[in-house]
Task: structure prediction
Amino acid sequence: MGERSVTSSGAPPARAWFGQPPGLTILFLTEMWEKFSFYGMRALLVYYMTKQLLMPQAQASMVYGLYTAFVYFTPILGGVIADRWLGRRKAVILGGSIMALGHFLMAFEPAFYPALACIALGNGFFLPSLPSQIGGLYAPDDPRRVRAYNVYYVGVNLGGFLAPLVCGTLGELYGWHYGFAAAGIGMVAGLTIYILGGRHLPAEEPRPACRGDGPRRRGDLRLFLLLLGVGLAVVVFRGAYEQTGNTLALWADQGVDRGVGEGFVIPMTWFQSLNPLLVFVLTPLFLAHWARLERWGREPSPLVKMSIGSGGVAAAFLMLAVVAGTSGPSASWLWLAAFFVVLTAGELYILPVGLGLFARLAPAGMAATAVAGWFLAAFAGNLLAGALGAFWSRLDPAVFFAGMGGVAAIAAAVLLALAPWARGAEDAGAPPADEDLKSGLERTFRR
Result:
């Protein structure tokens, strides 16, 4: 508590909060409330479309896929606008305000599509602009700088954990619009904290001047082709992974016995809190495990890790296929919980590792383009997930889940096949990574 923090603004140092600059607490709480609003609305979205708006399941899945896809697409444009013209603070305030408007518009059925557009557009300004302010809270040689991203990531998952419990319960038990209103209130709370805490945040950086991309290395084409191949594999992977908020939510409602004891039924939206909760539990275990493997010289390469992760997600869906095919019309909720354990373990092997790989292997002068490529892969993957989800009502659940397991297994095979090429591409001259940037990207941009 007695430490002093240094910011890039040149202002007098402020007393630290909990051993970190007070600005980190402001960013932490802002991000926590933003994720609360985002995941709170998302927990209700498929149910609202099918139960309140009476959309056919195939149409609801396509709308869900398009919405989540554009949530990943808009940050590509929003980040450029923030860097070139708006500045990060104005981008956060503008984006958060547009998102809050979108959440409140969800209370009016005729405004459904404009509401989704507002949330996706606002997220484009907000998502890339908030975490990019973390580095400016520290002097370049401050050892707390890397650990700060771990603290910030707790906010990401804390908001994601609380959202289905609060917004989901309100929407499911008392009315959908109460849940959407709670999400909007959460976004306003985050914006208020950000604005009131502005004096603790770093000053805006000068706008970058237009300049050439710099010299190219001999291995740049090889790196580009590698990242393209990895990106395509991630698109396929997300086609299965993103079913968790789409068709899996429908199965939790229709095909799972959620009863516990006498008379209590677990709300279907609560299961969407399992993923962020398990991230809390599993991340330290995996980090410790990888550190031990590194000391022994046996840590897998990034592409092998990603292949293992995609294979884990395939195993989770194949497990559900067996359960859905053998348990009759109603499976025990314990199987759904077990699915999330296996799925989250696989997710931690592929998503943060993949974004770190993109940041590290970006050709000279193309770091932003490489990160944009990761978001493009997420965008295309969510579109694919929506298209695949449209088959849910036409297939038996066991067949559908087996198909999703096959999709994830294809991605795992492609990633494993690329692993030797990745080692060669790195040897051909990958640029040195900024470890702080890489760590931050890995921990803050996972949705």
Q: What stands out?
A: The chain is about 70% helix and 0% strand. The first strand starts at residue 256 and ends at 257. The chain has two domains: 22-203, 215-447.
